[in-house]
Amino acid sequence: MKRGINIGDHFENTYDTDKEFINPVKDWYYDQIVKLGFDHVRLPVRWSIWTDDKNGFKIKENFFYEVEKTVKRFLDCGLEVILNVHHFREAMDEPMKYSKKLYAIWEQVGERFANYPNELIFEVMNEPTWRATDEEWNQVQAEAVKVIRKTNPTRRIEVCGIDYSGLVALDRLVLPDDDNLIATFHFYDPFEFTHQGAEWSPSMKDTKGIRWLGTDDDKEFIMARIVAHAKNFSRTHNNIEMNLGEFGAYYKYAKPEDRENWTRCVRECCEKLGFSWTYWDFNRNFGLFDFDGNLRQEIADALLKD
């Protein structure tokens, strides 16, 4: 696993749970991802709104079927797949309170995919927030790994720290007692550049005009941040495999050339350090493609042109 892309804003952003689920992943995605040279995808899934909470948190079959079909098709294309629990917002804030539901989800997902090849990777949960404590999250994450191991004894599992899978939180992550883990983190620094104009962020929605010129100081800032936390974490934990699970710059106000420079810098930093990376995202707000399916060549070059 080296170069990957998130299928963001698809399976994790559907709210019409009383309607028949329509698979948001289009046929053309598969060939394009392989053709461009990616070797893995991350499939964020919002299982938590597709459960029957009065019936043991049973995942609704129509949704489960579409996720499984998509995972299988990506695997059949020769891609590795990271499958996670995404946007379980209640558990992101209060993991102890909602741990029973998280474990129930992983019991079902683990059983469903138990016989799938090891090219399928599980990620316990996306971005536990700063509202959770390190102690709570370390405890819940370790228990979730145990739940997965009941049906998937050899599958790779991605784990993260709190503060939205932040770099600094790695320093406080206690790894579960398991020999087949990958540590993952997200990187969007400097935030005022990568999220300028982001409507979902009150502090950023009116921000614009922030440049990232790729000076030597700019590049050194990014490398130093990643080394100080991610590389140091790996070194002190028996050289555990590291995956940058999300990085990207919102398209709205950032200049294309600045997005290209920043994206290339982060990608090259990871590759120099021996980390795999998974860009956010395929064809939405940070997309490699725009909403109409047109390739943003500057992002493609930043990610894939050596």
Overall CATH class: Alpha Beta
- Shape, please? globular
Residue fraction in strands: 5-15%
CATH superfamily, by name, is Glycosidases
Could you tell me the CATH topology label. Answer: TIM Barrel
Low-confidence stretches: none
Helix content: 25-40%
Order of helices and strands: EHEEEHEHHEHEHEHHEHEH
Average of per-residue pLDDT values: 96
Q: Report strand order across the widest sheet.
A: 1-2-5-6-7-8-9-10
Tally of DSSP helical segments: 10
Structural class: alpha/beta
Spatial extent as radius of gyration: 18 Å
Summary, kept brief:
This protein is an alpha/beta fold and 306 residues long.
Description:
- The protein is α/β, with parallel strands linked by helices.
- It has a single domain, classed as TIM Barrel (Alpha-Beta Barrel).
- The chain is built from ten helices and ten strands.
- An eight-stranded parallel beta barrel has the order 1-2-5-6-7-8-9-10. The protein has a two-stranded antiparallel ribbon with strand order 3-4.
- Strand 9, helix 9 and strand 10 form a beta-alpha-beta unit.
- The longest helix is centred in the C-terminal third of the chain and has 21 residues, at 216-236.
- The model has no long low-confidence stretch (mean pLDDT 96).
